[in-house]
Design a protein that fits this description.
162 residues; alpha+beta; Chemotaxis protein chec; 4 helices; globular
Length: 162
């Protein structure tokens, strides 16, 4: 027997480039007071020139792997904007702030497509930094990659749907 939730057009929405972009914009603009100057949607995969990578899994029937790539100084600037600080925070503080940012992006994606808790659950974020870094998601799916140009440089957000 079908319930009203099964027939809801919101619960059947697919995750698209636009979904990823809008979720990221929402988080950057509200949590980090960042201004998005330009965006590009691509199918490009992993970045090997990032100095910070944050990832989390969206587990469930409509999940995937969400990855954020950026330079260290940009991560510092975003952390300072999020926390209201100045100068260079310690590595743990930057990791925590960017981890929270990727967690918020994942939550915004989940909310945007109207997913229930049984359709998508978020894993804790994992954040690493260093140089050079290379990250690879083992998936046969084409990633939904969005490059967002901020006044502090480019930030890439990629989602590999499951």
């Amino acid at each position: 027997m079908q319930t009203a939730a099964d027939r809801s057009p919101v619960s059947s929405m697919e995750i698209t480039h636009s979904t990823v972009e809008q979720a990221t914009r929402e988080v950057l603009e509200t949590s980090a007071q960042a201004v998005v100057l330009e965006t590009r949607h691509t199918g490009e995969a992993d970045r090997d020139f990032a100095e910070l990578i944050a990832t989390l899994s969206l587990m469930g029937t409509r999940g995937g792997t969400l990855v954020v790539y950026c330079g260290w100084q940009q991560a510092v600037d975003l952390a300072n904007s999020m926390l209201g600080g100045e100068g260079e925070p310690d590595q743990e503080t930057v990791h925590d702030a960017v981890g929270e940012m990727v967690n918020q992006i994942g939550g915004s994606i989940k909310r945007a497509i109207g997913a229930s808790g049984s359709e998508i659950m978020l894993s804790p974020p994992v954040v690493i930094s260093g140089s050079p870094l290379r990250h690879c998601v083992r998936s046969s799916a084409q990633p939904l990659s969005v490059e967002l140009v901020l006044n502090t440089g480019a930030l890439w957000v990629c989602l590999w749907p499951s």
